[in-house]
Amino acid sequence: MHNHDQASARKSLALKVIALAIVGTISLVGPYLYKKMSDSGFSSNAPDFRAIEDVKEKKEAFFSFLRPSVNNENTRIVKERALLTQVAGSGLSNVNSKDTASLKRLGESYNLPVPPTGMDDGWLTEMLNRVNVLPEALVLTQAANESAWGTSRFAIKANNYFGHWCYTKGCGLVPSQRNEGSFHEVAKFSSSQESVHRYFMNLNRNEAYAGLRVIRAKLSAQGKDLLTTETATELTNGLLKYSERGSDYVTDLQAMIRHNKVYWKK
């Protein structure tokens, strides 16, 4: 499993602060989302991917298992973004008290609190950059890469498909090859859905991936469909800090997206 930008926390206090932000509290909408899906019969029980010997069958099973979680996250984000685009169209001066309260909660969720002076165009623009969808080809490819197609110890025992770290003792699983002096653990999640949710929030609010959000905003401004395989490939260029391998990691992701194109919906 590849370590993402949090691995560099050992080298820089500044990046360590960023990493801590990644594994902070789940957004305010998260707990409700998980409960709602549980109530509707959504299952987080993963197949035993290790037992599937046929490569094509394993890939199909892995993508089919996580795809509903990706769709759930994008559905949530579309609803959140609708309020932001509505405000952008009508003007901040016309926001009512109910929407103001909702926007403040949303800002907290995305680590961008409303300024003490109140909402302004700069805040709204940055929120629109953060609150946006991610293509399934990107999400599922990173999940496959980071979890060894769902067969890693962390995927099986911690529902962790993206290599997320945490920094409180007992918050997750201790890596077997953790460097001396390191104190991180691999975060443990209550479900695969929570793991996918944390991944989305990671890319959408962590400063390390501001570049990805810039790429996405430019594509959106050009009228491009953000959920296509082409977009997924473009967005990988904003993931240089996800792994210590940098550009080699990005190249690997792009190759995986290309080699598995038959599995993508767009």
Describe what this molecule looks like in 3D.
- There is one protein chain.
- The protein has one domain.
- Helix content is 54%, strand content 3%.
- The protein has helices spanning 13-22, 30-39, 55-90, 97-109, 121-130, 136-147, 153-158, 192-205, 210-221, 229-235, 247-259, and strands at residues 165-166, 172-173, 185-187.
- The chain is globular, with a radius of gyration of 18 Å.
- Residues 1-44 have low confidence and may be disordered.
How would you summarize this macromolecular structure in one to three sentences?
Keywords: Membrane, Transmembrane, Transmembrane helix. The chain is mainly α and 266 residues long.
Shape label: globular
- Euclidean distance between termini CA atoms: 27 Å
Quote the average pLDDT.
83
Low-confidence stretches: 1-44
Q: DSSP helix count?
A: 11
Strand residue percentage:
under 5%
Give the number of DSSP strands. Answer: 3
- Helix and strand run: HHHHHHHEEEHHHH
Strands across the major sheet, in which order? 1-3-2
Kindly state the percentage of residues in helix. 40-55%
* Count of domain modules: 1
CA-atom Rg in angstroms: 18 Å
The main pleated sheet reads as: 3 strands, antiparallel
Structure classification: mainly alpha
